[in-house]
Every structure is written in C-alpha cells, then in structure tokens.
C-alpha cells in the first residue's frame, strides 16, 4: 500500500469507527477492520528482515533451492488484533451520551454482562498467542502443548457458566418421539468438557491442515466468511421479522464484532503468505486463529454449529489419526512433494522397510507396515483414498501421507502450489456453504426447533 492509500484507509476507518449511527458496533468493526489491515500491511514488510536476523525463519520446501523466509509472522496480525480489540472496548461498552450526572445516560451497545465475556475472550487469545510463540521459538512437545488451549479457555467457560449455563442439547424429533423422551438432554458438566475440547481442537486442527503457501491463513478466511454469513442470516432476519429471539440477535452481533476486525488482519496476512509466500505464519497464527473461532463459538453459544464449518479440518484430523497416533509412521513433514522439473506438487509418501530389512535394523524404530493394515490400505486404494507403491514382490513399500492435501492431489492430480491452495479453499467454502444451508433447513425439521429466523422454518414447523 502506498502512503496516499494508507492515509485514505486510515481516514475512512476513523470516520467509520467514530460515526454515531444505530448500526455503530458493526460500522466501527468495519473501521477497525480497515485500520487492522492497514497496520498489518505496513508492519509485515518492515519486520521480515528483523525476524530473519534473529534466526526466526523457515525453508520454503516447495520452491527451487528452498529459499528462507521469515517464520512466525502471524504474531504481527495477532498482536494488532489484540490492540484493535482493546481500542474497540469504549465503542461497545461506554455509555453513549451523558446528561451531566444524576439522570439516566443512554445504554451502551452491549450490556455490561457481555464485557466479562469480551475480556475473557481476549485473555484466552493472549494465552494462545503466548503458547504459539513459545512453540515457534522452542518447539514444544506435542503432549505438552496439547491440553494448554483447554486451560486457556477456563476464564471463558466460567463466564459462560454465569451468563448462559445452558448445557442442554436438543434431541432429534424422531428420537424423542420414538422413545417418549423430553426434547432435550442436559449434559451438565460434560458440556463444559465439550467446549474445552472445541478449544483444543480448533487451534490444533488448523495447524495440521498446513504445508502449502497460503493454506494456514486461507482456511481461516473461509471459516470466518462462513461465520459472518451465518451471523448476518440472524441479524438480517431480526430486522425483517419480529419474532426472532433478542438474545440470538445480540450474540450474533457480538460474534460479528470479533469476526470483522479478524477478517481485516487475516486478509493482510494472506497477501504476504499466499503463493509465492513472502512470509510463513508459524504455529502462532494457527493457535491464535483457531482460538478466535473457539471463543466466538463458546461465547456465542453456537459451539456445535461452529463445528459444521470445521468439517474439512475434522475430516483431515480423522484421516490423519493413524499417523498422529503412531499406527502408521509419521514423518516430521507431511507436505506434498515438490517436483522441480515441472514445478508441480505431487503426493508425499511415508516409507516402510521390507520384512528382511527391518529384521536387521538395530535402532528399534520399526517402520514396517502393520500386517492388519495391509487389507485396509488395499481397500482404501480401491476407493481412491490412498496411493500405494509396491516393490517387485508386490509388497507395499510406500503409502501416501494421510492428509487432506494429499487426498486432493489423488483426486484432482498434481497441481501448482497456488492453484492447489485455491482449490482446497474452494472445496472448503462449498462444503461449508452446504453445511450452512443444511443447518438452517434440515436442522429445524429434524429438531423441531431453531433459534433462527427463517422463511423455511415457518414452512417446516407447523
Ligand atoms: C504441521 C504438520 C506437518 C506439516 C507442517 C507444515 C502434522 C502432524 N503436522 O506440522 O506435517 O509439514 O505443519 O506447516 O500434520 N512450510 C512450507 N511451506 C508452507 C508452510 C510450511 O514449506 O507453505 C514448511 C516450512 O519449512 C516451515 C515449516 O513448514 O518452516 C513449518 O512447519 P511447522 O508449522 O513448524 O510444522 P508443524 O505445525 O509442527
Ligand atoms: Mg504449524
């Protein structure tokens, strides 16, 4: 961005932030989003060289000569986001107008009970930035860092306990009818474990759907856009119809207040991380962005709907689980294999020793394919869910790494890195949109209740 464009963006953001209108929270969010974008866009090119000087860099594995570029740059948008969200507080929680004491002042945009939700969300995000940074700098062990997001979410869960304490889930109508049950079951404390699990899952699942330029940020952009559409659906409905529950309107407004500035800083990061990447985002970004979604889902009481937008990450996790849990050997990097001669990305593989070799190996690290997995792999191969390489004896010597990225390469063929990332984002968006539509059409039919506005609801629920 040149100086004139930056100055113009800052001016527009100042007007949007400050202007008093009935839609002020959203309009301020847009202003802060533009402000966040401008700051991140300004800072990233400035700090890159400093990061490299401090030894914080990574090798871009899918380029000729594996050049080094700054790593952990996600900390810049993450910190800008925190600052922006601090600046935003008076616009959301200060009383509008003051009639000189004594009399009633106008109410703030959100009730003050929401302030505890807001602050505990920021506390959780701060903890995650710290964890991500520690991980990028000191490479923390998987088993040590795995549960930390759940601890980071404790303040948020306590606020949830006081604000909502809603721990019931709806049962599908056909089940409650068939077994003469009530329409909902109270999960009690289990619901809190579920929300803690969401805060573990979101950051980690983003981190393992990674390895090609742009994907770590790209996937968070797609999830954020889907969540914005979901929020708008409720908010537009509120203005068009009058029977929407007021609390649903408030939580979705609140969610937008987190998402819109987040989109601004993510877009600026994407500009530098997309193919050909000028910076790597680091685990800091994956943990931070994952936690942004977790806090939005938890504080907005839609942690279940949130998971619909994480379907690709859930599938990637399930598909990866044999490697994550050590049933199949897991190399340090599972990113696709770059072919220098045509510039395309091909499947990457995990290799097995054949039986004679491993009998001789003395390091105790057996990398043989477990016998019971052979028929499973053969079946998966027939279903185009894995690629296998066999030796002349017909034994499996290599299997493609179990990642969604590799699966997309199996289905769509080798691609250029930029096109592969775009394709995965498009698939993610299409799946997310389908989930969104099902959430607002099928869910009301199956559960017999939906807290959203929908023309279809009235059509279905009679
Ligand atoms: C996770 C994945 C790992 C994948 C890595 C890539 C699991 C269990 N772990 O590990 O398989 O290889 O992310 O981020 O699934 N890199 C690129 N191009 C990119 C992004 C990253 O070459 O577009 C390389 C760079 O060398 C970079 C490194 O990956 O320095 C970052 O890896 P890191 O985030 O530390 O890996 P993990 O999160 O541990
Ligand atoms: Mg990572």
UniProtKB/TrEMBL annotation:
Chain ranges passing through the membrane: 30-52, 73-95, 115-134, 146-162, 189-209, 221-240, 252-272, 284-303
Gene Ontology molecular functions: glycosyltransferase activity; metal ion binding; UDP-N-acetylglucosamine-dolichyl-phosphate N-acetylglucosaminephosphotransferase activity
InterPro entries: Glycosyl_transferase_4 (IPR000715), GPT (IPR033895)
Listed EC numbers: 2.7.8.15
Pathway note: Protein modification; protein glycosylation
Family affiliation: Belongs to the glycosyltransferase 4 family.
Name of the protein described by the UniProt record: UDP-N-acetylglucosamine--dolichyl-phosphate N-acetylglucosaminephosphotransferase
